[in-house]
Each structure stands twice: as structure tokens, then as C-alpha cells.
Amino acid sequence: MTDVQALREVLTPAEELTIVCHNNPDPDCLASALALGRIAAAVGIDERRILYSGDISHQQNRAFINLLDIDLREFDPTSVHDRPEGSLLAFVDHAVPGGNNRVPEGTPIDVVFDHHPAEGIEARFVDHRESIGATATILTEYVRAFDLELDATLATALLFAIRRETLGFLRGATDAEYAAAGFLHEAADLNLLRQLSTPSVTSATVDAIAQAIANRSVRGAVLISHVGRTSERDALPQAADYLATLEGVETAVVFGVVDGSIHLSARSTDTRVHIGDVLTEAFDDVGSAGGHREMAGGEVPLGIFADYADDDEGLIAIVEQVITARLVAALNLEADGDA
């Protein structure tokens, strides 16, 4: 049985499908969810919903949802508890309950599409390919195999997601990304692609990136920085992307306090460093962290630091000290660095 036949067999008897995005979903996750919803509609599932948890603060992600008019709803725990007969639960761009999502551990999952490193994936249907550059690439293959009508909205969403996830085909892109892009290009709205590529930036994002630039510390080819406390979680990957372009820097890690957690974003072009493994080693015992060789992220609950400071300034100082020390140890760096 082919993967397409296996997916059809899981979907066909169902009456409704709940697609759960990971926390703070990005275009790759959102476009993949949109594509899976279209596939479900094609096999006769009338009730479909896309849920997310966390925040959608990145200006590009907000523009993506608004310009493509994606019907996105906040995560509702009742959607995954005591599901009625004929109701399916799917993950896209993540794979395990409780891992970068608010679905309780042990919840039965029916469908999983993902390209991130993950272990212990259990579902009735799984297409998990770490070698692929974007989950949207995988879903594009299924859109093509199911012979769906490729309208401008779906084609634009998938093409933009592939471009964004691979940084314009410069990070983790494979032959599959180029093949998917070639298939999607003719139907995509190129004007809309340009709009999505150049969204407006909030002043809070600019401030956070400025803090990351000011707080940077460079040790050899590794840059570590923080933004202090920010409301713009998605400023962290933007800062990491920018600082990774600094001359002589091959690995950049940026962290900051967002609400009740410490968030981290990392980038690396050093072939000796698997930055996903580095973050896992550094923070897996106190939070969740990991990712690809070139791109990774993590989250550590702030509660473990709360008893060590009476004010926010002191808290940020302790967070900086502890997080930096863990990164220095995991990356086998010298303790001192130069700004």
C-alpha cells in the first residue's frame, strides 16, 4: 500500500478532522495545515478545523494568516478530549503530544506530517522525513498525488512556506523543495508572495533586535546574546538570523524572557555543530529544546529562576548568567568572550 492509499484509508471513514498546529505556528506549519484540510475535504470530510496555541506575533505570520484568509482558531482542550466516533486528530510540523503543543501526553493521534527530529512518534498514519527541508514540501507531494485543484491561495501558501523555511532555498533545501516549488509556481500569486515577503515590522520587534545586537558576546565563531524581556517572541529568530550574518560568526544563539518562559532561537552554519543537539543537551533537563543541524529552538519555564530574584532586573541578570553558562558548556567554549 502506498502512503497516499494509507492516508486515504485513515481519512475516508471520518466525519470531522481537527488539525493542531504547534505552539506559535509559522508559515510551514500553517500552510501544511491548510493543505491537509484541503485533502480532507477532497475525500469527503465536511467538518475541519485548524487550532493553534501560543502567540502569532511574528509580523510575517500575521500577514500570512490575514492575506490568505486562513480560518484559524485558538486551541480548545475539548477538541482533543473524548472525541466522538468519526473524529480524527492530526499534527502538522510537529509530532508528539506535549512536545511544542498543548495536547496532553498520551493523547491518541491519527495523522502526523513532520520534518523535525523526533522520537517516539505514534499515530495511525505517519509521514516523518527529517531529510526534507519543509513539511510544506511533503504536503505538496500529497496535494499533487490526490490531484487536488491547485488554486492561488493554496499554491501561494505552500510556496511561501517552503521558501521561508529554507531561507530562500539556502538552508536545508533538497531536490524535493525545488520540485515542489516548480509544481506550485505557475498557480501561485506572485504579487501576494511579494507582500508576504516584506511585511511591516513592529517597534517592539526592532527594539528586541537592537537589544540582541547590543548584548552580543562572541567566543570564536559563536555568538550568544539576549533581548531581556520582550512581548515579541518571534523577534528572537529574526535576531538570530540577523546576527548569524555577522562576519566570523558561524553559530548564533539568542534568548529572551517572554511572559513566563525563557525562549531560545539558534542558527548555525558550522558543519561541526548540530545546533539542535546542542540545545537538547543544554536544556532538555529543565525544559524542551532541539531542532535541526542548522536551526533550533527551545523553551525553559521561568519558574525555576523565580526564587532567586526580587525584581525583574535581577531576574534577567540571573537568566543571562545561567542560560549563557549552559550554552558555553554545551558548545565547549571558553568562559570569557568579547563583544
UniProtKB/TrEMBL annotation:
Record-level Gene Ontology MF annotations: nucleic acid binding
Domain of life of the organism encoding this protein: Archaea
Domain DHHA1: 222-322
One Pfam entry name: DHHA1
SUPFAM superfamilies: DHH phosphoesterases (SSF64182)
Domain DDH per the UniProt entry, residue ranges: 18-162
Identification of the protein by name: Bifunctional oligoribonuclease/PAP phosphatase NrnA
Organism classification: Archaea, Methanobacteriati, Methanobacteriota, Stenosarchaea group, Halobacteria
